[in-house]
Amino acid sequence: MNPNATPVVSDLVLLGGGHANIQVLKMLSMKPIGGLRITLVSDQTHSPYSGMIPGYLAGYYSYEDCHFDLRRLCEELGQRFIKAKIIGIDPQTKKIQLEGRAEIGYDCASINVGIEPESIAYTSPEAALKQIPLKPISRFIRHWERLLADLKAYQGGEALPIAVVGAGAAGVEIAIILKMLIDQNGWNAKVSLIHRHEFLVSAKDRRAQKKLSETLKALDIKVLHNTQALKTQENGLVLKDDRGTVYTQGFFRILTATQAAAPLWFERSGLPVNVDGFVKVTGNLLVQNAHDLFAAGDCIHFSPSPLKKAGVYAVRQGRVLEHNIRAYFSGKSAFKTFHPKKNVLSLITIGERKALVHQDSPSILRWMWPSLLWTVKDGIDRRFMKRFQARTFNTKPHDFKKVMPQPLSTLVPEDWESNTCGGCGSKLAASTLTLSLNKLDIPQDDSVLLGVKDGEDCALTRFSEHTLCLQSIDQFRSFISDPFLLGQIATQHALSDIYAMGGVARTAQVGLTLSPANRKIQQEDVSQVMSGVLDILTRSAVSLVGGHTGEGAELAIAIAVQGEVAPERVLRKRLTQPGNRLILTKPIGTGAIFAANMLAQANGKRVDEALSSMLQSNKTAMEISKRFAVSGCTDITGFGLLGHAFEMMGKNSGNGLGVKIDYQSIPLFDGVCELFERGYYASIAQANYESLSTVLSAEVNNQRFPALFDPQTSGGLLFSVPPDQAEDCLQALYQNGVSKARVIGEVIDQNKIIIL
């Protein structure tokens, strides 16, 4: 972190990872405004590029080819990414409500979220399971993969009937691709395309309709024109034809590409919406009656001239949106108006690397043959995606530094005075801290006599009698851009020391170091971090009793935890019994993953998996382990797996015990081996090896066995149990959600470390 970084004075929040917001993120990062912080909020780490999804479903593209890795992109651009589901917005208080976490504030926001098809009514939950909506695309892909697996496994004599409801561009493409895959693989299935109109895709382009009809006929796809899908039953669809006849037709699965529906939270939030629920925007993409809230893409109703739901509009709106947001903050230029083209060019996939032009006006592309059109479409799509994919290094660069462009303009006042003092002079102002803490709902605890809001020099607590007191403290700099998530993980990490000794955590105190920012931003950051801390403390029945704040070069957090344990329940690190099996409860690899993530080289999905593991409490594993004859227990953190295993050997105890570890049995996060091979190591990994090198054989080093030395944040527990209890212990852990636990070795009667 640059200690001379520009202080943050204003927040831009991008709601959703749609095509328009992605462009705003990129352009504002390349030509930044000093003092402006950008946060992208999305409930998915990988946002699909709709133009390439048909090619992905057909097998022409990889998942990464056609998805924006939002987390990785934000990391490379130096911006914040928050993975959360948006459930509402309050334009008056400028707050965004997120599912399961603290709301976040904004000075200016841009809405570019996904849409869903209107659902077909269903008669039962079982009937609803037959439906596979095409939106959101991320969910559709999961169902699509399951559908293909079902078709591959089907051995019945009668062809499985599959319906695609809706013959717009998406519905036609899905029907063609699905039938193409069925024919290529010899699966026993048939496809019907159900449409409530006579025409396909659009009524105007008769030439394209004729070609599409010929393609569907050649693939033996049955088309039910002028037919309305009324509801789904357990045995199929209730349909109504153009003569008014209602009948039921059996289908194995029903893929719905019907008319788009808006997110329900638009109307619930009091945003101006049209009759279909889409948010109304003006010609300059401002939400009607708002001056600090923009919207773009399929989720809007463009009031000057309503638009079709087509991704090309979101792409074209991106530049206008970025200009107007920049104008909002700078006040130095007028807003631009978005002028949509009257006719939208649509290239529809009609077979094996073939495409068809569908447009309401003449185009030179009409005269190209289908394979050449596919090549043109493929080139356009790949060039667009390349603009928004993070740079990729084959191996870890030796001297790579993320250097963002210097701002040409700034929001920071000329009379800004940064906090340059040390010691207590670097503390936050009392008013800033008080305002932030007053917003937090801190649970009451009868054992806390004087707590965080009482203003005393110390917390005053009452613990039960006949117990031992446990105390621990952990501190680290921020490694993730989401402050709420940082608070959650730091808390789980700190509590783990108490659990590793068999204790029950009771109280906690928090120390925060905040980056330079104005008072409003610092209040927001304190609220976000502390809401994450309180979320875990509350779930863990631990009371927050105090803390400390300060300002520094970057966000950092320290948490001190106090707990209690009965004397007979204390778990020590020291191993006691040769032959015992070593059990590790979480995968290894967070050090390498976040070393790569800091350089924007980690796949966002892999980062999500690591974060999910880091959020998992070790309390459950500790409680399960205590049902068995545990000897030796510790949590795996900064010293790495082998460093903490060495601590368990009790070299000063004289018991002469050691460990034998089967390296192949160590659970690893997906993708970690590839990162190791490419040279991504946490900065402390080599030091972890060097501290143990004198007790290791020559062939054991950080290059051959990197997982042994990788430092973990909020890692799992490592403990030993008798060999006849190991399998029962694992099964108990699995049954209680500790699904990644593994036996990785055993205790030996030699004071040495053996790696197999």
Rounded radius of gyration (Å): 29 Å
Beta-strand segment tally: 39
**Name given to the CATH architecture of the largest domain:** Alpha-Beta Complex
Mean pLDDT: 88
Classified by CATH, the class of the largest domain is Alpha Beta
| Helix segment tally | 20
Name the CATH homologous superfamily of the largest domain: PurM-like C-terminal domain
> Which class do the helix and strand fractions yield?
alpha/beta
Beta-strand share of residues: 15-25%
Shape: globular
Helix content: 25-40%
Multimeric state? single chain
List the uncertain runs: none
CATH topology of the largest domain: Phosphoribosyl-aminoimidazole Synthetase, Chain A, domain 2
Distance between the termini: 40 Å
Count of folded domains: 4
Tell me about the biggest sheet?
6 strands, mixed
Gist?
With 756 residues, the protein is of the alpha/beta class.
Summarize the structure in words.
With 756 residues, the chain is of the alpha/beta class. It has 4 domains: 10-43 and 84-114 and 263-336, FAD/NAD(P)-binding domain; 121-261, FAD/NAD(P)-binding domain; 423-568, PurM-like, N-terminal domain (60s Ribosomal Protein L30, Chain: A), CATH 3.30.1330.10; 571-755, PurM-like C-terminal domain (Phosphoribosyl-aminoimidazole Synthetase, Chain A, domain 2), CATH 3.90.650. Strands 35-37-34-38-36-39 form a 6-stranded mixed beta sheet, with helices on both faces. Strands 6-3-1-10-23 form a 5-stranded parallel beta sheet, with helices on one face. Strands 13-20-14-15-16 form a 5-stranded parallel beta sheet, covered by helices on one side. A hairpin with a 2-residue loop joins β25 (346-351) and β26. The longest helix has 21 residues, at 519-539. The chain starts with 9 loop residues before the first strand and ends with a strand. The model has no long low-confidence stretch (mean pLDDT 88).
